[in-house]
Design goal:
About 35% of the residues lie in helices and about 10% in strands. By secondary structure, the protein is of the alpha/beta class. The protein has a 7-stranded parallel sheet with strand order 2-3-1-4-5-6-7, with helices on both faces. Helix 2 packs across helix 3 (about 140-185) and helix 4 (about 195-205) packs antiparallel against helix 5 (about 210-225).
């Protein structure tokens, strides 16, 4: 067995390293063998795992709905052997007919939430009657803290409303411009609009200024992907942001008919998943990234749907974590983040519950380009409350995204970071995965993809070393990665040219490496199966 890859072995690769286009499956490649900062998955299988047999491991995917019959996923979807679709709760777990997981945002009539409130909208709705009074007298320290959060939520709502209205105006302008250009061009050609046809038309009528302008606009719409589908989807999101996400009068629990303020009111939702998967596509993408890490089908995906456009309810997060733990998941992937948390205590208790049961939680650091160590940039869920930095457990990994490029761009430009708040980085750009409607494509990028990749890595560690503890899995992932001290771009509002050493962007300072992780596990944590 080859030794762990040391950083000194890769120093020479950083000099004049160039990648002109994204290599397919670059995230699985090795920095020494392929000169790409992937997780060395191919190397791990070729040299260590090839002759080993892993135990199947369940990864709970807390996300949007999942296309469970997708050709690239159907063999990796978890099945609850104790349950049948018969209208009965066969396994007596409080969820009827949950044969593959649970959809917390739908119901058995086929209805599914697509748009829900932002969390700050919910906070304002909850505390408006209390703090809107100008003569309110604070009765406790908790009152004061809630008021601070309420004021922050109000500021955010007003700012977002302004943006939302401008965004709707923008897409309406784009749509009108697109329609006007197409109507004018239709007077001259009746074939499909392609760049070649438009270029030919441009040459035929060089002095027709109106037509030339229309051709230029239409050509740009084609180049930048402004199809009718894209424009209509953009407009829908912009409109619903105003009508639902930011609307204090909108009730986003009509479909479930539960009480979101009562954690003991559970069992709402549905066992159905293949609903709205084209629109709510994120879960299908993440399921593919996670399952693809297991070359021998070692990984089973347990879909737990809680996400729509807007923010996840803390109640759904907490119940989904508990469902995952109670039904055998060893890893929980949460590729989402929000700025506020209305019931953080419920989530922290669920995280502690997972820790007690030896379950790892992997969370995305989000895509704002922020330093999460600054209080104003806090993201939820996390493993501590928003008033101190004391972690409630040792089973939570917060993940940033790295690129296939070295030097200044090793940190993905969109990724959040923080030497206190982010634990480790993983590849998160241009990852080939499953897409809705039985398709496969490249996910452009996000810390979501990086989180999903690490969830797959953790699952493999559990698969081949089933008696390993959750704290050991976390330790291995953080400490066996590859450390890079290259300077990367971390611009701020005050300093647009700011640079930071990559190894100062997270607690570990590293990018996860599954080959090193397995070598370490072989040395330290070999247990009788």
């Amino acid at each position: 067995m080859s030794p762990i890859v040391k950083n000194r072995a890769i120093d020479s690769l950083l000099i004049n390293h160039k990648v002109n286009k994204t290599p397919k499956n670059w995230e699985f490649k090795d920095v020494i063998l392929d000169t790409l900062p992937g997780i060395s998955l191919y190397r791990a299988y070729d040299s260590i795992l090839n002759n080993k047999e892993g135990k199947p491991v369940i990864v709970a995917l807390i996300d949007m709905t999942v296309e469970i019959n997708h050709q690239g996923l159907k063999n990796n979807i978890w099945e609850n052997s104790d349950e049948k679709v018969n209208g009965l709760d066969d396994d007596d777990n409080g969820y009827v007919d949950d044969i593959n997981g649970w959809n917390f945002i739908g119901n058995n009539k086929g209805q599914n939430n697509e748009f829900v409130n932002y969390e700050y909208t919910r906070i304002i709705k909850k505390f408006n009657s209390k703090f809107k009074k100008s003569n309110y007298i604070f009765k406790s320290k908790l009152d004061s803290l809630e008021y601070q959060i309420y004021q922050k939520a109000l500021k955010k709502l007003n700012s977002r409303l302004k943006f939302a209205k401008e965004d709707l105006e923008y897409i309406n302008m784009v749509s009108n411009s697109k329609n006007d250009a197409e109507k004018l061009i239709a007077n001259y050609i009746n074939t499909s609009y392609t760049l070649e046809n438009l270029d030919s038309l441009k040459k035929v009528y060089p002095n027709n200024n109106k037509l030339q302008s229309a051709i230029l606009r239409k050509s740009n719409f084609i180049k930048y992907g402004y199809s009718n589908e894209y424009v209509n989807r953009y407009r829908l999101k912009a409109k619903e942001r105003i009508d639902k996400l930011l609307n204090l009068d909108y009730n986003d629990r009509i479909i479930q008919k539960d009480n979101p303020e009562n954690l003991n009111d559970y069992g709402y939702g549905s066992y159905k998943f293949n609903q709205n998967t084209t629109f709510l596509d994120h879960g299908t993408l993440m399921a593919g990234i996670i399952s693809k890490v297991g070359f021998k089908n070692e990984i089973k995906i347990m879909p737990l749907t809680i996400s729509a456009y807007g923010d996840e309810h803390d109640k759904d997060i907490a119940l989904a974590i508990r469902y995952a733990v109670d039904n055998g998941a060893k890893v929980i992937n949460m590729s989402f983040a929000k700025e506020f948390s209305l019931h953080l205590d419920w989530v922290l208790e669920a995280i502690e519950y997972a820790n007690t049961n030896n379950v790892l939680i992997v969370s995305a650091a989000a895509n704002d380009k922020y330093n999460l160590d600054l209080n104003e940039n806090s993201k939820f869920p996390n493993d501590h409350n928003n008033f101190n930095d004391i972690e409630v457990s040792n089973n939570f990994l917060n993940v940033g995204s790295s690129s296939y490029k070295f030097k200044n761009y090793l940190k993905s430009s969109f990724s959040n970071y923080g030497i206190k708040e982010v634990d480790v980085f993983a590849p998160g750009e241009k990852i080939y995965t499953t897409f809705p409607n039985n398709n496969f494509d490249v996910a452009y990028g996000g810390t979501s993809s990086a989180s999903a990749l690490i969830s797959g890595v953790a699952a493999l560690l559990y698969a081949y070393y089933p008696n390993i503890s959750v704290s050991q899995v976390k330790e291995i992932i953080m400490h066996t990665g590859l450390e890079f001290d290259v300077m990367v771009k971390t611009p701020t509002k005050k300093d647009k040219k700011k640079m930071t050493s990559f190894n100062k962007l997270s607690k570990s300072g590293k990018i996860v490496n599954i080959y090193n992780a397995i070598v370490s596990a072989e040395k330290k944590y070999i247990f009788k199966k």
